[in-house]
Write a structure and sequence with these properties.
The structure is a single chain. By secondary structure, the chain is mostly helical. It has two domains: 72 residues, 434 Repressor (Amino-terminal Domain); 34 residues, no CATH class. The chain is 68% helix and 0% strand. Helix 1 packs across helix 4 and helix 2 crosses helix 3.
Amino acid sequence: MKTDDLNITGRIDWLRATFKSEQMSQESLAEATGIHQSQISRILSGQIRRSSKNFILLCKFAENLHSKRKSSKKIHPTLLSALEQTWDGSTEHAEAIAKVIRSLSSLSVKQMHF
């Protein structure tokens, strides 16, 4: 077995563990990444021989999930609750909400006089 094969096998194991811990189905992964569910199934079952565009995309998606989990501890629960109640789960909506939030960056409680 080549070193690249071991690296891919290890990444597949990591992908499986990451998506399992996030309780993400193949269908929800397909919706979130744009990768067809059958391709996700092939990747996660280890039926790939080399790195592909979809494999790399899944790895990047998993890395983002992992970093979000780490950073979510720093986000105030009130803000997380508001996001959960507001966001419809789509990328487009996430970008729109992020744009609104960023537009508020110049405001601060210290600057606001009630």
